[in-house]
Amino acid sequence: MTMVQKDALQIVLITGLSGAGKSHAINCFEDLGFFCVDNLPPTFILKFAELCLQSEGKISKIALVCDMRGGAFFNHLFEALHELEENEINHEILFLEASDEVLLRRYKETRRRHPLSDMGLLEAIQAERLALGELRGKADKIIDTSLLAPRDLKKKIFEIYEPGQRERGMPVLLVSFGFKYGMPLDADLVFDVRFLPNPHYVEHLRSLTGKDARVKDYLWRWMVTHKYFQKLQDLLEFSIPYYIREGKVQLVVSIGCTGGKHRSVALADELGRVLSNRYRVHIEHRDIDKA
């Protein structure tokens, strides 16, 4: 293991009060591309970090949840943190907390069992807060979730751990398809371009696809293609930031023509070229190779 490898590894230890939102937080880190492990016993943290260092860069961002659910294992957390420091492995602690009143309400709403269930609920919450006091003092970042809805917590985590990259964090998948083969089942938005001039009826273009320059030239020869594409681009550039604001993980935009070979392919490719300046865009031509 070299120092360069160690410097490239990012470990975020998520901990804090039970009911403060750790489960939702680790889902947010997963959306950010972190390799996530929930309720990892602290004694395994160093060994897990070493395994990740040996992955040749395949695993470079790690989020681990360690909390009172670990029972007796949780008492070894400070020892595990000390081992990380001795081995010069980058790590930080994210501590989540909430007020007693909010935690009481959440537990009553979900009817979940508190890790310290051998006492009354309020007493358990207060005992856990006391037990975690030293760990809270060592935390690099503290988030009070008392007044945060799940989407607000996600926004806060994105802002902290992917500053300036939140928009690019949501992939936009552009799927071209043919209506004759059925609509994509996972589509969020579907656009029908069967009204555009059809290269299928132009003999020398029929065997080609929408990726061919000759097919693209034919489609963009018509003013209706230009006008429709501009309106489609405007709609998506207006809508996508609102999908991101709502906490959507991925947006699937499907563009369909009759066979999924010419018009939908050409428009999906051009749309991908335009949107890739701001978003993480993936393009899939589902039916391009079908007869």
What are its keywords?
about 290 residues; alpha/beta; 2 domains; four-stranded parallel beta sheet; 11 helices; about 20% strand; elongated
What's a concise summary of this model?
The chain is of the alpha/beta class and 291 residues long.
What does the model show?
The structure is a single chain. The protein folds into 2 domains: 3-163, P-loop containing nucleotide triphosphate hydrolases (Rossmann fold); 169-285, no CATH class. The chain has 11 helices and 9 strands. The chain has helices at 3-8, 22-31, 45-53, 77-86, 100-110, 121-131, 133-138, 150-161, 213-219, 223-245, 263-275, and strands spanning 10-16, 35-38, 61-65, 91-97, 141-144, 171-178, 189-192, 251-257, 280-285. The strands form 2 sheets. The chain has a 5-stranded parallel beta sheet. A 4-stranded parallel beta sheet has the order 7-8-6-9, covered by helices on one side. By secondary structure, the protein is α/β, with parallel strands linked by helices. Helix 3 links the parallel strand 2 (35-38) and strand 3 (61-65). Helices cover 41% and strands 18% of the residues.
Dominant shape: elongated
The number of helices is 11
Output the structural class: alpha/beta
Task: Please report the first level of CATH classification, the CATH class of the largest domain.
Answer: Alpha Beta
What is the name of the CATH superfamily of the largest domain? P-loop containing nucleotide triphosphate hydrolases
CATH fold type of the largest domain? Rossmann fold
Average pLDDT for all residues: 88
The proportion of strand residues reads: 15-25%
CA distance, first residue to last residue: 52 Å
Instruction: Tell me the number of structural domains.
Output: 2
